Amino acid sequence: MSRICPLTGKHPVSGNNRSHSLRATRRKWNVNLQKATIIVDGKPTTIRCSTKALRTLRKNQKNINAEAKAAAPTVQAEVAEPTTATAE
């Protein structure tokens, strides 16, 4: 499993630890990924996302639900229309 948040794109960053004498040793700061269960298409789905993404999801939960309901008919209509590819 990679340590990348699928919602925000956050990934580990690297840098240096600095001691009192300013010696530099390499280190890595990982993303704080947490397991969360979200509802997608009416079904619970477990994802690993950053805590910042979780806060944003909780903050905008009502807006996301409203947008999903509003977008559902257009998404279904786009999927229902067949696309024809012409080969030359």
UniProtKB/TrEMBL annotation:
<dbReference type="InterPro" id="IPR037147">
    <property type="entry name" value="Ribosomal_bL28_sf"/>
</dbReference>
<dbReference type="GO" id="GO:0005840">
    <property type="term" value="C:ribosome"/>
</dbReference>
<dbReference type="GO" id="GO:1990904">
    <property type="term" value="C:ribonucleoprotein complex"/>
</dbReference>
<dbReference type="Pfam" id="PF00830">
    <property type="entry name" value="Ribosomal_L28"/>
</dbReference>
<keyword id="KW-0687">Ribonucleoprotein</keyword>
<feature type="compositionally biased region" description="Low complexity">
    <location>
        <begin position="74"/>
        <end position="88"/>
    </location>
</feature>
<dbReference type="GO" id="GO:0003735">
    <property type="term" value="F:structural constituent of ribosome"/>
</dbReference>
<dbReference type="InterPro" id="IPR050096">
    <property type="entry name" value="Bacterial_rp_bL28"/>
</dbReference>
<keyword id="KW-0689">Ribosomal protein</keyword>
<comment type="similarity">
    <text>Belongs to the bacterial ribosomal protein bL28 family.</text>
</comment>
<dbReference type="GO" id="GO:0006412">
    <property type="term" value="P:translation"/>
</dbReference>
<feature type="region of interest" description="Disordered">
    <location>
        <begin position="67"/>
        <end position="88"/>
    </location>
</feature>
<dbReference type="InterPro" id="IPR034704">
    <property type="entry name" value="Ribosomal_bL28/bL31-like_sf"/>
</dbReference>
<dbReference type="InterPro" id="IPR001383">
    <property type="entry name" value="Ribosomal_bL28_bact-type"/>
</dbReference>
<dbReference type="InterPro" id="IPR026569">
    <property type="entry name" value="Ribosomal_bL28"/>
</dbReference>
<feature type="region of interest" description="Disordered">
    <location>
        <begin position="1"/>
        <end position="24"/>
    </location>
</feature>
<protein>
    <recommendedName>
        <fullName>Large ribosomal subunit protein bL28</fullName>
    </recommendedName>
</protein>
